[in-house]
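Researcher: Structure prediction, please.
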Amino acid sequence: MSTIVNIPFDLLQPILIHLPDRRHLSAATLVSRAFNHAATPLLYRRLDSRVKRNILHHPSATLLKRPELAQYVWHVTETGAVQNLRQVIPQITEDIVGALRLCTNLTSATWVDDTATPEANFLPILDVLMTLPLRELTIRTQYDPGERVWARLNTIQGIRRLSVWSLEWGPPRVLQGWAHLLSSSLTHLELGRCAGVPATILVSVFMKLPLLQELCLKGAPSAAIPAIIACLPNLIALDTEYLGSGNYRTPLTPKLWTWMRILLPHQQTLKSFTLNAFAVHGQITIPRPFIVNLTDRHGKSLQDFAVGLAQLTLETVSYMCSTCPQLSTLECSVASPDVDSIAKAIEAGYNLQTLTLHVSWIPDGSVDLPPRFEKHLGPRAMYADFSHLSSEGKATRFTEEHARALMFQTRLRSIGIGDQSYTGRWVHRECSAEVGKEENVVLEVVGDPFV
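Model: Predicted structure follows.
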């Protein structure tokens, strides 16, 4: 019989990589010599520095004492807050730079700095990063890193993933002077501050980045987004915001829905749609014509639809479930008199696995699906009748029994209705019998313990 101590070495790392905490990996290194050889590279793969309660937590001391461990480091996170300890640890910068030079296999780096001197803090780190085989770089600062930093950055080639977020001061950085060096490598890009940059400059930059597959763009004029997308033939994911006619977030208007349709010119290509609508704008109802257009053009490919607190009618939910056969995730707000009406609305969602609904329970009546939707529902039987689970005169509450009934008859395995959420899975259990033992499969439904 195989035990944990004689697992083949080739299988140890694929198993240990799923440990969720560094403390667990650290404990694994103490199990045996084989476990130590398998867990140590994973333990040092990602190293972070931080200052907590004026105490420095930094891996440089370990790497300088045991330089052979540096070969395992793939990603580092450095922070400008460490530099505030120079008076206590005068050699801190030299130690960090020295340890970083040892990480010859480093491919990813993150710099986080909320101090007022990001340029002086980052320059020594950047000088070392430029000598390493860097493929991913993230810069998150409160203030602009400065001209000297950008002069060096604009000479780096081979970056595949780049994220730049500088919240205040200094001009917006949108890769002018750097894009041409990244044209043959950059596939993922985040630009967190584009406000005030003319659309012509943005378009000229993105024309040099044809390999982009994922783009996060904040502050860019909404009118420029369609032109930017036209420059990116390989783009598969876009995260941007609707700013109306200016550079500031405005309440959602009918123009938003037209703008989003323009962003999706190719039919049956959209797999995931997410709308983050801020509550400050009040309750938002997504117009039915937008849903009809979306499902007509992308119903066969759409798998995930998440609009947060934006509201759909149960009729529209039913329509989406019946016209999007691949739909597996649905999140929105609805108004419903009872759980039975919700069950009826999602009846046609044969592949629905995750359902999250922010529900406003209406006191009386029911929501009848119009005849025009009945053709989509087919002969499938209605879910279990939940009326016996509701108490007259009391607010409707989604219970474990509701969740279990839904999961039994569908592929749903994660359900959140109002403030109640449940997950389910089929598990094997052995049950004792008078003659021997038999194994059976049961549906295990677990509620959120934090609710």
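Model: The longest helix spans residues 118-129.
Researcher: Thanks, that helps.
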